[in-house]
Amino acid sequence: MRMKEDHMLNGQLKPGYNIQVGTANNFVIGYDVFPNPTDTRTFAPHLDNMMRRLGCKFKFAIADAGYGSEENYDYLEGKGITGIVKYTSYEKETKRSFKKKIFNAENWEYDAEQKAYTCPCGNPVPYKKTETKKNKSGYMQTYEVYQCDNCEGCPFRALCTKSEYGRMVQRNEHWLDQKSKVKKLLATDEYKKLMKERSTECETVFGQIKCNQKFRRLNLRGKEKVGTEWGLLMLGYNFKQIARLIKA
Fold first, then answer.
1. Distances in Å between the alpha carbon of 21 and those of 1, 30, 202, 214, 215?
2. pLDDT value of residue 130
3. Could you give the CA distance from residue 210 to residue 177 in angstroms, rounded to a whole number?
4. Is 135:144 a contact under the CB 8 Å cutoff?
């Protein structure tokens, strides 16, 4: 994996694990060790493992934008869990500056009946075909492909696309619908509050372990041993939380 601590500044790969932690009421209630370099594909198995171990079903699942994906939103909906999870571009899309980017296809006028976009130059960008792709976890995604036939001689071409074939746009209706639901959900005061609580819940765990305890490198090797080592750290963290409550 590529680590944040990159002393050579060359993005070199190093052996490591992706550790996921679940918390509630400032206590660690579960953790898992994964070989995945990104968080997206750890979300569903981590939640499944915690619900299985605890023998319960979660009402809410709160996570940062690194977990927001079409696949994970479908997973949450299928489990009947309210997902308070941003997607990667959420913050950008909620800013006024995003709407001013005229060459971003998400800001283009779209005609559902004609199945065509209208580009900043006023040219139609019609539907061409539908593609289905399978990601590494086997999840199927469906895209509609749109392409402009009038890019030749367009004064905006250099700003709009570098493709010699003209501007092409991919539209995923299911993903757009999911993002719309997420925006509405996160706009409510109740879920804004829960999202803020997440940062103090989860980030505190890693802040305590990595900064206060100076634990920045695993001592053992192998998933099982790493799980044991991290589990002992989490037990220690929870004991500290109990001690704080007793003192209070």
1. 19, 6, 7, 18, 16
2. 97
3. 38
4. no
